[in-house]
Specification:
Helix content is 27%, strand content 23%. The chain is an alpha+beta fold. Strands 1-3-2-4-5-10-6-7-8-9 form a 10-stranded mixed sheet. The longest helix is centred in the first third of the chain and has 17 residues. It starts with a strand and ends in a 7-residue tail after the last strand.
């Protein structure tokens, strides 16, 4: 399974390079950087510099000066990369990122958050709640789009051997239809805790059974309500849904 991630507060090796005190980028690096900015304008179909300046968070005059040859500090480069949501290495023209835009076409970005954030009924995820961003191959997601990733707790052993404590799972919050034998993220009866379980309907009853793969955990009846099912688990270390 091909996956790569970027920690929320972690700098890439290229960001470390660019932000080291006293580092001066070469004239060649500066020119590559300006070329990449122009390329980003074209790819985003932005024709006016003032519109692109707004994306970068600077004034049109400052952008015009940069594109005209003004030397730019490495920390500002990192800021631009974050605003454009591309690696700083891409803006510096490093070979590792030559196919970055191609990867965007092939991969889908999935935020990793706490379980209680993923379970938000409103469906909105605050930007500061994202711990990590995963990039998963679209070809293996089969059209699933409303995705969020959650890391299981270190003591979450109810689904072993299928899932292990600390595993990361990806949930499609738009897929709530109960399907036998599949895995679902659910809210537990306290409405504060979340878990991954198999879900079984009980004929003519207003409750469901939450089933664990670990036989040490017996089936747990829970009342059926609108917010019980958070979404279907479609990915972990292996792919579940085709």
């Amino acid at each position: 399974m091909n996956i790569f991630s970027q920690e929320k507060n972690a700098l890439s090796v290229h960001e470390h390079y660019a932000t080291q005190g006293g580092v001066e980028l070469s004239l060649k690096d500066q020119e590559i950087f300006r070329d990449r900015l122009r390329s980003e304008m074209r790819k985003r179909k932005i024709k006016k510099q003032y519109e692109f300046a707004k994306v970068l968070g600077i004034t049109p005059t400052y952008l015009s000066a940069i594109l005209g040859g003004k030397r730019i500090g490495s920390r500002q480069m990192v800021n631009f990369a974050k605003r454009l949501k591309v690696p700083i290495g891409y803006l510096l023209g490093l070979e590792d990122y030559q196919e970055w835009w191609g990867l965007q076409d092939e991969y889908l970005e999935v935020p990793l958050v706490k379980g209680r954030i993923a379970a938000n009924p409103a469906g909105q995820i605050p930007g500061d709640a994202v711990e990590t961003r995963l990039w998963l191959p679209k070809a293996q997601l089969h059209g699933h789009r409303d995705l969020v990733a959650v890391r299981l707790g270190e003591e979450a052993d109810s689904m072993t051997p299928t899932l292990r404590p600390g595993d990361t799972v990806v949930i499609d919050r738009a897929d709530k239809e109960i399907v036998p034998h599949h895995l679902f993220a659910v809210r537990l009866p306290d409405m504060e805790s979340c878990a991954v379980k198999r879900v079984q309907k009980v004929p003519d009853k207003d409750f469901l059974l939450l089933l664990s793969d670990n036989r040490a955990y017996p089936p747990e009846p829970v009342p059926l309500h609108d917010y019980l099912i958070i979404g279907r688990v479609i990915w972990s270390s292996t792919y579940w849904v085709k």
